[in-house]
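**Discrete fold encoding**
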Amino acid sequence: MKKLGVVYSIVKDGLIIVESSIKDPLFTMGAQVFDSTLRKIGFVFDIIGKVEKPYIVVKPYDKEVLEDLKPGSTLYYYKHVKKQAKPSKRGRGRGK
């Protein structure tokens, strides 16, 4: 689990705007987002803003989590990366 950033704002439609602490936040698209108590909050929905100072948009799984979040709260992310399967040796010539 890595630090995503700090809550900047919560907008009217329930999205959470996070000031990114990551240099290249594009990698976090779709990642699960957690609060400091490791409670699952939502997922990375979008990246907005300037390249030099990006903001991450988090879509919460449930609107109730918004009651506990305040600007300045630190959020974390986890993104499962699938390993590529090794190519099968089957089907190669068998020297017949």
